[in-house]
Amino acid sequence: MPLVNTTEMFKKAYTGGYAIGAFNVNNMEIIQGIVEAAKIEKAPIILQVSAGARKYANPKYLKKLVEAAVEDSGLPIALHLDHGDSFELCKSAIDDGFSSVMIDASHHSFEENIKITSEVVKYAHERGITVEAELGRLAGIEDDVNVSEADAVYTDPGQVEEFVKRTGVDSLAIAIGTSHGAFKFKGEAKLRFDILEDISKRVPNFPIVLHGASSVLPEYVKIIQENGGNMAGAKGIPEDMLRTAAKSAVCKINIDSDLRMAFTAAIRQHFNANPSHFDPRQYLAPARSLITECVRHKLVDVLGCNGKA
Ligand code: G3H
Ligand code: 13P
Ligand code: ZN
User: Is the overall model pTM greater than 0.85, yes or no?
Assistant: First the structure.
C-alpha cells in the first residue's frame, strides 16, 4: 500500500467515534518507534513533519524513512506537513511527495487566511493531497514562537462554516484550550467542549483537528527529574479529556511533546545507569522502545484507533 491521504482515515474515524494519532517525527528511531506501535495495534497513523523537522533532517531523508515504514508495516500511513506557514512551503512538501499538508495561516486576518488556504487547497486537490487549515490561535511554543495564554484566541464558531465552504479545506484545526509544548497551563487544564460542540453542529461530518494535545505524562516527568533533568511545572491535557474529544468530531489528535519526553526520559535513565556507554545504539534502542510503549498507550487508551487499520 502506498502513502495515503487523510480522506478515508477521517471518514472512518468520524463515524467510528475514534481519532487518528498524528505523531511528529524527526529521525529514524522516532519513526520506527511509532510505526512498531501502530503495527502491534493495527492502527492507521499520520506521521507529521514540521518546518523545523524538515530543516533538521532534510525532507528527502524523512520521506525515504516513511516510505520504508509503509513498506515494512503495510499500514495506512499519511505523511503530513505540520504547520506549513506559506503556500510555497506547502507546495514544496507536496512536490516532495507528502500526502497531506497543513496550511497554518491562522495568524493572518480571516480574509487572508481564506485566500492563502484556498490557494493551497487548489494546488493540493489537483494532486490528490488533503489539506488541514487552522482558525483561532493556540497558546504555547511553535517553531520557536511563544504565544502566551493571554494571546491565544479560541476559534469563533460563527466563522467556521464560511471558512470551510469558501476554502474547500478537508479538515480544520481549532483552538479550544489545548496548547503546544510541555508547559501548557499554570492552573487547571480546561477545554471548551461547548465550542467544539457548536462547531460540529455547524459543519456536520466535517473532521476537526486538535493540536497541542500531549498529556505530559507524569511518569516521564519523574524519570527526567530523577535523572538529572529539570521539567518542573510541566503540565499537559488530561487524557480523559482527549478520550472525550476523540469520540466527537475530532478525527486527528497531534502529539509531539509526549514523544520528545519519552525519548529523553529513556536516554537520561540509560546514561545515569550506564555512564560508560558511548555507542548510540545502546541508548537509542531504549529510547525507541519507550516511544513504542507511549504510542501504544495513546492508540489504545486515548485515541481508540487500535484495530482500525
Ligand atoms: O506544533 C509544533 C510541533 O510540536 C513541532 O515542533 O516546530 O519544534 O518541530 P517543532
Ligand atoms: P504537543 O506539543 O502538545 O505535543 O502538540 C504537538 C502539535 O500540535 C504538533 O502540531
Ligand atoms: Zn501543532
Answer: yes
